[in-house]
Amino acid sequence: MSNSSSFNEFLLAFADTRELQLLHFLLFLGIYLAALLGNGLIITAIASDHRLHTPMYFFLLNLSLLDLGTISVIVPKSMSNSLWDIRTISYSGCAAQLFFFVFFLLAEYSLLTVMAYDRFVAICKPLHYGTIMGSRACVKMAAAAWASGFLNAVMHTGNTFSLPLCRGNTVDQFFCEVPEILKLACSDSYLRMVWALLIGVCLGFGCFVFIVLSYVQIFTAVLRIPSEQGRHKAFSMCLPHLAVVSLFLSTLIFACLNPPSLSLPALGLVLAFLYSVVPPAMNPLIYSMRNKELKDAL
């Protein structure tokens, strides 16, 4: 940690009036309980029902664990601050929150890429699915997704908090976010972070291209299926994952494309809420809505 940061805590953005603080607490409480219930039920159902011990549900179990991690890192602290009318988070607490949020978020993105490959093999190479997506291969893919999130979190957290901060300690966000911490960095040290951001952008774009190419081949293969029932079954296998990927990427891209010079603080808060809080609560609903096997297990 840099010695030039003379403060030992950050000030987070919260509503000034007590009514809005309580509204914020109740809104986050409802969403958090929904996320805990939905993801917890999916984890329990997959773990306890042997019929769901397949690659697709194995990856879905990992996705639910990551969703629980993502929302649990930021929402309880935000609720606590709103309830007790405080704005502070310690320096080490902010670093820990940023590390775990980046870890869970990027691991989830990597896992969604792996899940796209799983759907590609299931539809485009069904005869080789059991061979390619064996239990050992699935464990290695899931471990690689978690490891990629961990390595990226170490890189971004280390680089962010090694920068000298000389523009105060007020973070215009309800949790510690990399762009908001970087706004506090001294201008002459900001360029040290560019290479880490470029690596993250390149990896993210690579995953995005892989997902798009996978679905181009999936839809090409599905449209060649002669029977309407076969096409419907193939689409039903892919649509939940495609919906989750679309929700995840659309909210994240809107947040990233929000120009700092033009953005309003309220808009930044809404965009952060959309990409950090909404997907973990919505993913269980999306996956269970038209999934008969999961409904039966539940």
TrEMBL record:
The chain crosses the membrane at residues 20-44, 56-75, 95-117, 137-155, 193-222, 234-254, 266-286. It is a multi-pass membrane protein. It holds the Pfam family 7tm_4. This is Olfactory receptor. Belongs to the G-protein coupled receptor 1 family. Keywords: Cell membrane, G-protein coupled receptor, Membrane, Olfaction, Receptor, Sensory transduction, Transducer, Transmembrane, Transmembrane helix. It comes from Apteryx mantelli. Coiled coil: none annotated. It is found in: Cell membrane. Residues 38-287 form the G-protein coupled receptors family 1 profile domain. SUPFAM superfamilies: Family A G protein-coupled receptor-like (SSF81321).
